[in-house]
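Regression check, S-adenosyl-L-homocysteine case 216:
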Amino acid sequence: MQDTFVHKGKRKILTEYLREKIGISDRDVLAAMNAVPRHLFIESIFEDFAYEDRAFPILAHQTISHPSTVAEQTELLMLKPGEKVLEIGTGCGYQTAVLLAMKTLVYTVERQKDLFDYAKTKFRELNLSPKFQSFGDGFAGLPTFAPFDKIIVTCGASVLPTELLKQLKIGGVMVIPLGPTNEQVLFRFTKKSDSEIEKEEFGAYKFVPMLKNTNL
Ligand code: SAH
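Current build output:
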């Protein structure tokens, strides 16, 4: 599959929609959304709809998030070039590609082997280089590479993964949906000090659940 002028045109319209209707204002986030070819991360049968604000099934009964959700989570991270970002839930690799387009160093974890392999192939095909791609349970984070400037969780956690907060730098930010299956609230946690965490709330979302262990 190619990235044609038709795809680029549709992407531009989506980016305008994200700015005007969703309220994304960070220029770098909008540029990243305009740059990453979302249609190349999903199955070809969905190609014509890739630039609509829709989620699609990917492997292992998971879904690629809505572009608006990807843009909002990315904006909430307040990324700066060169920051170390831990992503939990690689999925098809689209959000990873958006984080890389923000010029960050990405460490990403996925618990489904099929998706881990799928994303690995995608990254190679599209010449994308996350710092580290891990097959494992994101509840444990990546202690070897900690601490991180930012953490993004792309699946809904029923309990706050405290291990992830431990792996955040002081001043670091974690964006995570919390709540039961299919009805989470998006939160941003800012680690003010080892004992003080600021918590902000950003409305209701539907994510696939964050599950423990691998491949169950
Ligand atoms: N960012 C992804 C979204 C995929 S959906 C994309 O752009 O495609 C969320 C992903 O989180 C799924 O792939 C799911 O398998 C994964 N996931 C769920 N629980 C997890 C865990 N404990 N550790 C790592 N990944 C997890």
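Comparison notes: The first helix runs from residue 5 to 22. The two ends are 32 Å apart (CA to CA). No diff flagged against the previous build.
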